[in-house]
């Protein structure tokens, strides 16, 4: 499969690399690394994400240099589209409008990927999409420098929760060692992502802890961030911190959920499990998707209590 | 150096392995791994730490099996003492009383090590003592199983802040990959250490955040945990959570300090820096020690405000 991808890349002059909407660290790392790597072997490349870059990821020069908005994609010709980390066409936003005129390669690690490209390289065992990009760039003999190594490591670090989640297999460590040897600056990544919390976020956290509720003998923990809470501290919705990990970290909690309000009548629900519970089943039931231990969905409602009750009931039957 | 150590081990029948007081994850991992590894090659081994094991590390069967108290050390003969992770003799508690009758090997990664053994293998570039133990056991051709691999990885994980601190070099990742390949269960480590927070700790955290103060344009952040705060939530002093990392993670903070009350008139002060500040200088000035980005000291006073002022003044001159 990777050989086919290499051939397609070699035969293309201009390439569009796209990631998914609501981009996370792995997505931005994968798009940026692919753009930088392909540029190093002489391709004309445009990186595109049809959404805003969250504040916590905006401190990386390489991302700001390589990732453009949809208009830029529309106006740039490309022989080939490479999609990274997006499990379905609707996840790439308006970039899907360009699909019918181009060859499309999909590179992803979500088991739920719909294989919507002409070539689909989907590796669910891979902890991050960034590692698949690393494989491609290694195969293309791209020479890594500090900037590329750092931005490639970013995706591995963030999608493994900085080497903590259960997807952290020995390949994760081997790839991280490779990139650190190539000059990757892990300190820059941790300082930007983990050690750069606005003080307002910690104030918001106090409120989230006040709202925290437990059910089923503390096996389920959940809380909410409302628009009102965000306004109180001047935090933008897209910058809502991922408190769901803090909830999961509590003793006895198997499933943690954050109900993050996105609009007056819409919520983004983020779920994590600790050991055995499959939160992707819950996500799929409510119209979303994800992995066994990390999944989510969006839901339109102006009655959050009702939604919480629905979700709790659904989970309670399995807990 | 390691060859000499291997020779001493080969020539000894009974071995005492000791770690430092106020043991952390790396210390307990190093002692336990060394004990288990040496037992696998047929030595009679006793592991000793002259202090209590903190609650957050008590969930590891291997530690409870291998680490005994001082009486056990006193009553067991040993041809050889191996000290791990302890930079000075007073750090091993009463175990130092046994030194004059035995050969002593010191294996450590603290640059401040006093070289107080007959053989001293001190490698400041090593992120953890557990990695030096791994080197020794590899050299002895010890066969790793899941239990040994997991307990050996524990020290690497905890002393690098789970692969986040600036000491996380490519050797850290290579060693982690090796141990995961040998069956190390990283998930067990993260679940035990990071995902097992008593709910009371998060309540205490809210209080710590209330007490938090900033100085020098937010470059210094500090807070305190008093015995009264611990009592309020029924938390034992030895189980005081390491909030200093939470303080350092805030935007703009270069130095973070926690003043943890140990007795009515004694405090344990824990310091972390983010990028450039050397907190070990501060620690040494006040009678303690440590690394550039993580150091600490103990201080006898019944006036914590006065101590805070002293420390702030000392730091302020350098910030």
Descriptive labels:
homodimer; 319 residues; alpha/beta; inorganic pyrophosphatase (n-terminal core); Diaminopimelate Epimerase, Chain A, domain 1; 2 domains; 6-stranded parallel β-sheet; 6-stranded mixed β-sheet; globular
Written description of the protein model:
Two copies of one chain form a homodimer. Chain A has helices at residues 2-11, 25-40, 61-66, 70-74, 129-139, 146-159, 170-181, 186-193, 199-211, 227-233, 244-248, 279-285, 304-316, and strands at 14-18, 44-48, 67-68, 80-84, 103-108, 119-122, 213-215, 220-225, 255-263, 266-273, 289-290, 294-300. Chain A has 319 residues and is α/β, with parallel strands linked by helices. The first copy, chain A, has two domains: 2-194, inorganic pyrophosphatase (n-terminal core), CATH 3.90.1640; 199-316, Diaminopimelate Epimerase, Chain A, domain 1. In chain A, the strands form two sheets. In chain A, strands 3-2-1-4-5-6 form a six-stranded parallel β-sheet. Chain A has a six-stranded mixed β-sheet with strand order 7-8-9-10-12-11. In chain A, helix 2 runs antiparallel to helix 6 (146-159), helix 5 runs antiparallel to helix 6 (146-159) and helix 6 (146-159) packs antiparallel against helix 7 (170-181). Chain A is globular, with a radius of gyration of 20 Å. The interface between A and B is large, with 40 and 40 residues. Chains A, B: Residues 218-316 form the DHHA1 domain. Chains A, B: It comes from Oceanotoga teriensis. Chains A, B: Residues 15-156 form the DDH domain. Chains A, B: This is Phosphoesterase RecJ-like protein.
